[in-house]
Specification:
This protein is α+β, with helices and mostly antiparallel strands. The protein has helices spanning about 10-15, 60-70, 100-105, 145-160, and strands spanning about 15-20, 25, 45, 50-55, 55-60, 75-80, 95, 120, 125-135, 135-145. The strands form 4 sheets. The chain has a 3-stranded antiparallel β-sheet. A 3-stranded antiparallel β-sheet has the order 8-9-10, covered by helices on one side. Helix 1 crosses helix 2 (about 60-70).
């Protein structure tokens, strides 16, 4: 039984060109009727990430960018700093832990306050602030006015050294 073949940076660079300033991968040669040399590699999936097929395996463009630039795959998650999942510019990518990656979530669709971590608490008839720190939900407090709750949320995110996008609204 043979071991599975893993994509190396050398093999990647023999097939694709990566422009770190634009984040675009282009094919170096024509390898089938649908892929021409010089064409942009991959397509955007249903979640907004660019995926690229190499050796019959689908890869995230962000992970390929890391392999291209660093010579190895990232050991953990790749984060798009500006929140745009299709923006694979090198300066917009960073390797993060699962915890840090979760901090960069956009607010959920059912969020009525418009701010991550701020919700209306019907029992107390106040705005409640909760943040997640080290995978634990932390109650910050309840506030009469939404403006005070938003300020408390921003302060809580700042105190806990979140990345500048973490806790974004």
């Amino acid at each position: 039984m043979s071991l599975p073949k893993f994509l190396t940076a050398r093999e990647l660079k023999s097939r694709l060109q990566y422009d770190p300033t634009t984040g675009v991968f282009t094919w170096l040669y024509t390898n089938n009727p649908r892929v021409e040399a010089g064409s942009v590699a991959g397509c955007i999936d249903g979640k907004g990430y660019r995926k690229i097929m190499v050796n019959k395996k689908l890869y995230s463009a962000a992970r390929l960018a890391f392999l291209y630039m660093k010579g190895e795959f990232p050991s953990s998650y790749m984060d798009h700093i500006n929140g745009d999942r299709s923006d694979d510019r090198w300066r917009n990518l960073r390797e993060v832990s699962p915890t840090d990656n979760a901090k960069n979530k956009a607010r959920q669709r059912n969020n009525t306050s418009g701010v991550v971590g701020v919700s209306f608490h019907n029992k107390s008839n106040k705005w409640r602030v909760q943040v997640v720190i080290d995978r634990k939900n932390k109650h910050i407090g309840c506030f009469e006015h939404i403006a005070d709750a938003i300020e408390a949320s921003k302060l809580a995110h700042g105190i806990n050294n979140y990345h500048r996008n973490h806790g974004r609204t």
